[in-house]
Specification:
binds tryptophan, eight-stranded mixed sheet, alpha+beta, binds zinc ion
Length: 885
């Protein structure tokens, strides 16, 4: 908790460090009621910062200083200055050692930052600024040091002692204690430090690298989870091979370890050689984890592994450059997931997520550029913008340079900057230098916040046989800036003729026609591209594969969208045409609801989805995606003023219409796929995910009929399926149904069967928190009293309150403000013991400008209540004050 007023930190104030740390030698003595940390830092004056010996200012928070020695001289209280955030000493020479001993309290650390306990296990989380809660240090990513770490703890309770790098020595100690020493030869910033001590079992394997080195792989978990590690191990080996093949990147240490912990603020952390994971991002097996969970494990294992190069070997100079490692690494893990599964489906899911959540962030009070220019609390900037939009920005570079050019650029980047702490500009420079390209204007994507709009209009000249597309780009004002300069927007496009075939594309001035799909770069506020030799009026397919993170508009009518759904050669745009058609139809229903009219749905949506459903040649996962109507959160995002009730009523009405009209076709598809599921043992692979995805969305539509045979099928699936994907869907379908007795029974059976598996209980909480039937808040409050609930565990908070506020919009936005009051109370409580989680749970309230004036007033009042609730963490302070500004 702060004692000083939180202050804004600016990128423009960046200065290199006055001192460097060459070597870091740490000894941890772990006890039940405190721990001791001895640090020996081998330091020198940073020659870059000139002569003279300025004071050495070390970061440190919540540390009890027991001793400090400078150049082997013990310092007395008069020889240093101590505040609650810094220790300042005066070096006498350019090279020296600094030894400190501090006492800390991991056993009461509920913020889960620094050294803390998760259950009976000690673990660490140092990114971004957690290392300063472990020892006095220069806790900034441009200070890179080698580390040697000795851990001493009771042998019986903590048989496993781990840290970064390679194990070099271990042995017994006194009083039933033992010790182990680890050495990490690679220089790294302190945020990549890790330590684990616990009673853990591990699954072991090996990986032989491209140069034939054998690397030991270990996944450590609590003994009861040893049967849930195989999927993560397989994912790890696939990631290691993929990074060699796709980026030429080889692993560097002799050992790579993953540890699963139950209490973790985020998904996982890429500590050098010792990744620490939220158990939800490691553990997966058919009986307990859904297909989505399996895919998430695969993606996060890959993400953290890929950081070994994009983040660890080449790290960030300062935290404003966070997207340098996160945007690039998300881009890398997306490419991996696309290669392991269906690339089009992966793209659809990523874009749907970006458009719903990142676009909302970019339009809200916390909007910031991919490389922000200022922040109060860096933990608040692990955002959708830095991660997901950052990945899109890297993806646009890939599109502009082509796969080969991009690879040349990444090779140069890794080679040029290995062992350095660098900036987004360095990344761009490597891409430019390797390709002779000029990305000067492109770099505006890093500095300008907000989602650009791209309005497109067409004109066809039948006599000249030319077709022109005019692009107008603009970017809305964001809290940081009103005026925006034009972006470089790569637009991949094609032109379809009346039969749906792709036309050859030749721009005016070009000698010959090229491919039927190509990328043009829109670089001006308004720009026209004219295609020649166009024999008939074409239908454009724009922004294929979502080639830029913009809001594109083109005046398609519904028949044209249906045509694109059928004929576009770009799978992503076929889906997107369906989404645009659905949006048009839903917006019409929303308007009818608002005007108090009876709802009448455009039957073309039914026709379009009927043909999707009967197309046996389509990837079943695509069929499932196309059957999914845009979510309420997305409909909110694209509304000027979101009418919560109308959106919910319109979408539910449309779902019922589709369910009624497509009942036969859905039933056939459901039964065929369920039959196959019964005959096939669970496999975590794309075609099986696809089959179950279609089966499950079909079941959720079918249940809207309330027919007894559907209830029977749902119960059969719930009772007899061998995997969590089918079982949880059946449970969710029951929970959202009117069959109260069956629902209660299924919930009770499920809870009884899985009461000892916290990750499965998280699913059980989420399914109920997400139920949009009336009475949502009361159900959530009752569930908080359930023995499996624990507010100190972030996964539980996300599963229950996160799902309620994020996915149950009709209940959360109850007109009486009860949902807002509930969330504000929660944030105030969380602020007291876990500021990072408090600040994240606050996000839904920050979107108050989207709603009607009555809801706006209620939401603002709750934000104000939080603001004046007492001592706020810098995390919550920043979000609340920016939201009310
Ligand atoms: N670097 C981590 C990742 O790649 C992010 C992370 C893990 C993190 N734990 C954190 C960020 C705690 C802030 C606080 O996903
Ligand atoms: Zn990351």
């Amino acid at each position: 908790m702060r004692t000083e007023q939180p202050k804004m930190i600016y990128l423009k104030d960046y200065q290199a460090p006055d001192y460097l740390i060459e070597e870091t030698h740490l000894t941890f003595e772990l006890f039940e009621d405190h721990s001791l940390v001895h640090a020996q830092l081998v330091m020198r004056r940073n020659p870059e910062r000139g002569a003279g010996l300025p004071p050495l200012v070390l970061d440190g928070q919540q540390l009890e200083l027991l001793s400090v020695n400078l150049a082997d001289q013990a310092l007395g209280a008069d020889d240093y200055q101590l505040t609650d955030s810094h220790l300042t000493v005066q070096p006498k020479s350019a090279s020296f050692t600094l030894d400190t001993t501090v006492k800390i309290h991991p056993e009461t650390n509920t913020a889960l930052e620094g050294l803390y306990k998760s259950g009976s296990m000690f673990c660490t989380q140092c990114e971004a600024e957690g290392f300063r809660k472990i020892t006095y240090y220069l806790d900034r990513p441009d200070v890179m040091s080698t580390f040697t770490t000795t851990v001493i703890a009771e042998q019986h309770r903590y048989p496993i002692l781990l840290s970064n790098g390679n194990p070099i020595a271990s042995g017994p100690g006194e009083d039933g204690r033992h010790w182990a020493t680890w050495e990490d030869p690679f220089k790294k910033p302190a945020y990549l430090f890790a330590l684990v001590a616990g009673d853990l079992w591990c699954v072991e394997d090996t990986f032989t690298t491209m140069t034939d080195r054998v690397v030991a792989l270990r996944i450590y978990v609590e003994p009861e989870n040893i049967d849930k590690c195989q999927h993560a191990m397989t994912s790890l080996k696939k990631s290691m091979r993929w990074d060699e093949e796709t980026y030429g990147r080889e692993y560097d240490l002799d050992i790579f370890m993953i540890v699963a912990v139950n209490d973790f603020n985020m998904g996982a952390m890429e500590n050098k050689g010792l990744n620490i994971f939220n158990s939800s991002a490691v553990l997966a097996r058919a009986e307990t984890a859904t297909d989505a969970a399996h895919q998430r494990v695969e993606a996060i294992v890959a993400h953290e592994y890929f950081h070994n190069w994009s983040g660890n070997r080449v790290t960030c100079r300062d935290w404003f450059q966070l997207s340098l490692k996160e945007g690039f690494t998300v881009f890398r893990d997306s490419g991996f997931s696309a290669d392991m599964n269906s690339a089009t489906v992966k793209r659809i899911q990523d874009v749907a997520y970006l458009r719903t959540h990142q676009f909302a962030e970019d339009a809200g009070p916390m909007a910031h550029a991919v490389r922000p220019d200022s922040f109060i609390e860096i933990s608040n900037f692990y955002t959708l913008t830095v991660y997901e939009k950052g990945s899109e920005v890297v993806g646009m570079i890939h599109t502009l340079l082509g796969a080969e050019g991009f690879r040349k650029g990444s090779d140069l980047y890794f080679e040029r900057h290995d062992g350095q702490a660098v900036t987004c500009d360095d990344f761009i420079k490597a891409m430019e230098d390797a390709n002779g390209a000029d990305l000067t204007q492109f770099k505006r994507w890093y500095s300008q916040a907000g989602t650009p709009r791209l309005a497109v209009s067409e004109s066809y000249d039948a006599v000249a046989k030319t077709y022109s597309l005019t692009f107008r780009q603009s970017c809305p004002e964001t809290p940081d800036k009103a005026e925006k300069l034009p972006f470089v927007i790569p637009v991949e496009l094609g032109l379809l003729d009346a039969k749906g075939s792709s036309m050859a594309l030749r721009l005016a001035g070009e000698a010959t026609a090229g491919a039927t799909s190509r990328v043009i770069s829109v670089t001006e506020a308004e720009q026209t591209f004219t295609f020649v030799d166009i024999p008939e009026q074409p239908l454009p397919s724009l922004l294929r594969g979502f080639s830029a993170p913009v809001k594109l508009s083109f005046p398609y009518n519904r028949d044209q969208l249906m045509f694109l759904m059928q004929h576009d050669s770009d799978g992503f745009n076929r889906w997107d045409a369906g989404q645009q058609l659905s949006v048009q139809v839903l917006q019409e229903l929303i308007a009818q609801h608002q005007q108090g009219q009876a709802l009448h749905m455009d039957q073309r949506l039914i026709t379009a989805l009927r043909s999707v459903l009967s197309d046996e040649s389509l990837d079943q996962a695509m069929v499932a995606e196309m059957l999914s109507l845009p979510g309420e959160a997305y409909l909110t995002e694209i509304s000027e003023v979101a009418d919560v009730d109308a959106i919910h009523a319109a979408r539910e009405f449309a779902r019922k219409q589709l369910a009624d009209n497509l009942h036969e076709a859905l039933w056939l598809r459901y039964q065929a796929n369920r039959e196959l599921s019964k005959q096939t043992p669970y496999v975590a692979a794309a075609e099986h995910f696809a089959r179950r995805a279609l089966q499950n969305i079909a079941l959720s539509y079918l249940m809207l009929s309330g027919k007894p045979e559907v209830l029977a099928a749902t119960l059969e699936q719930f009772d007899t399926s061998d995997n969590m994907t089918e079982r949880l869907t059946a449970l969710a379908v029951l929970v959202n149904s009117p069959f109260e007795a069956e629902k209660a029974q299924a919930l009770a059976v499920f809870a009884e069967n899985f009461k000892d598996n916290p990750l499965v209980m998280d699913q059980w909480f989420s399914v109920q928190a997400g139920s949009t039937l009336p009475g949502g808040l009361a159900r959530v409050k009752a569930l908080m009293e359930h023995p499996a609930f624990n507010i100190k565990n972030p996964n539980k908070v996300r599963a229950l309150m996160g799902a309620f506020a994020g996915q149950n919009l009709i209940n959360f936005h109850a007109a009486d403000g009860s949902g807002y009051r509930f969330l504000a109370d929660l944030v105030i409580e969380l602020n007291g013991f876990n500021p990072q989680i408090a600040s994240r749970q606050l996000a839904p309230l920050t979107r108050w400008r989207k709603y009607d004036s009555a809801r706006q007033a209620l939401m603002r009042a709750e934000l104000e209540r939080i603001r004046s609730s007492g001592e706020l963490s810098s995390d919550v302070f920043e979000v609340v004050s920016k939201s009310l500004a």
